[in-house]
Amino acid sequence: MPDYQTLLVEKRGRVTLITLNRPQALNALNAQVLDDLLAALAVFDADEGQGCAVLTGSDKAFAAGADIKEMADMGFAAMYGTNHFAGWERFTQTRKPVIAAVAGYALGGGCEVAMMCDFILAADTAKFGQPEIKLGVSPGMGGSQRLTRAVGKAKAMEMVLTGRMMDAAEAERAGLVSRVIPAADLVDEAVKVATAIAAMPPLAVLANKEMVNAAFETNLTQGVQFERRLFNGLFATQDQKEGMAAFVEKRPGNWTGK
Ligand code: CO8
Q1: Looking at residues 90-113, what average pLDDT do you find?
Q2: Cα-only R_g, the chain
Q3: Annotated active-site residue in 64, 112, 143, 171
Q4: The dihedral of CA 37, 93, 55, 202: what is its sign?
Q5: Which keywords describe this protein according to UniProt (predicted)?
Q6: Which CATH number covers residue 221?
Q7: pLDDT of residue 82
Q8: Which of 12, 86, 148, 193 is most buried per CB count within 10 Å?
């Protein structure tokens, strides 16, 4: 496994647990974190023994945003010329599911990275926000778009214009997170959910993830058609035959990923 400077990466069965580890900066996302995360996700995606990843931070902070100290002196030419932050979009090209397990602050880029994951499990201590306006800027890693799609215009607009934080209960009510979990149980519960996903037929996992994500990119007719194509395609897999035979024979399925 590569040597990561800003992450702890461990395998728990078929689950890769990735922990952001820059405690001195509340896991602020600098260029090294991006490099490390993209490398870790590439290893995870290519490993046939791994089925689902969990991305988490510390008790105090999932991530307190992009690294302000790294950005502070940058000008337009450096930002625009290097397309700073564009690399983060590669995060979303991970094919297998990635669950965000968020405790403490998920602010700015931290909230944006959590939203790049396939779903968010929140500790009861989680706080989400897009406070960039207070720094004289705006979300720059997709927050204005993904937050608006997740919680709707009213709440997203209020959050980006005021920079206020949303606690875990509000985030669950608004649909930003799938569930709230007591902080002490967060990582274990996330690994449990990830283990359940990693035990599913692998091709069906990829297809299900792809079709839900298509809902953000297509109109309804196109999205339903995309779903139907993938659904039909799954009937070409051995795991479909196995899954339906196992149901009829009242036994667990034995997946081959073929
Ligand atoms: N970047 C760099 N360092 C940070 C960051 C950050 N985002 N957040 C915290 N730190 C550092 C602090 O500077 C401090 O370091 P030091 O001990 O050396 O002074 C250490 O982490 C601990 O932080 P605090 O002492 O501030 O801890 P508190 O418990 O008092 O406060 C908060 C915690 C409320 C989370 C506070 O740290 C805070 O407000 N952080 C900044 C949150 C923020 O504004 N995030 C948005 C950043 S901008 C962003 O993400 C934009 C993404 C896209 C931009 C695209 C531009 C083109």
Answers
A1: 97
A2: 19
A3: 112
A4: negative
A5: Fatty acid metabolism, Lipid metabolism, Lyase
A6: 1.10.12
A7: 85
A8: 193
